């Protein structure tokens, strides 16, 4: 317990879904969490729900000036940054023929440029703080071919490869910063929801039983993996890609 006690953690896209689950668990484990989201009202409500000194910021992760402002405010308030969770994302469905250039560019802006900018501006403060952990949320879409989410898969694939480059860069610079990517499968969030009753979802959220084939995961499943990567227990992991999908990417096709 309290494996991240005293750490300052920045989580993007934290007003709901995976980001909110991450923030709640890390706060429970003793971290000070800074939540950012494009939805200012929801991120403020999320911080209030968490309590324990949680700090909300309105942020468009594709804007560099916003990153500079938020990192500067974190340094001013706390003097350090230990963990960055690049979680913000969105999906616009479309095949390579159907997807508009506007939708393609939007998804690259949020998920590729957003991760790049987050790492670029967080790394100096993290290095100054004595090191830390960067956790980039990718997707199983970076491992499999999904024809209806071409732009989303491209963005998540870029996160996968960029993570490795950043990991080795930080290692060679001696910053003490690890960088890993998480690749969730289908999780019950606002982006993707399983066709089951609310009662079944609530029951699964409370249980730790193994899930049957084809079942969706819960946000807490990913949050506990984020907690592991944020904690010193994962000190020997950098540049890794952790798939958490209930075996979906390796299930044989009949």
TrEMBL record:
Zinc keyword on record: no
Pfam family, one: adh_short_C2
Keywords annotated in UniProt: Oxidoreductase
Domain of life: Bacteria
Gene Ontology molecular function: any one: oxidoreductase activity
The keyword Oxidoreductase belongs to this UniProt entry's keyword annotation: yes
InterPro entries: NAD(P)-bd_dom_sf, Sc_DH/Rdtase_CS, SDR_DHRS6-like, SDR_fam
SUPFAM superfamilies, alphabetized: NAD(P)-binding Rossmann-fold domains (SSF51735)
Transmembrane segments: none
Family label: Belongs to the short-chain dehydrogenases/reductases (SDR) family.
PANTHER family: DIHYDROANTICAPSIN 7-DEHYDROGENASE
Protein name according to UniProt: SDR family oxidoreductase
Species in which this protein is naturally found: Noviherbaspirillum sedimenti
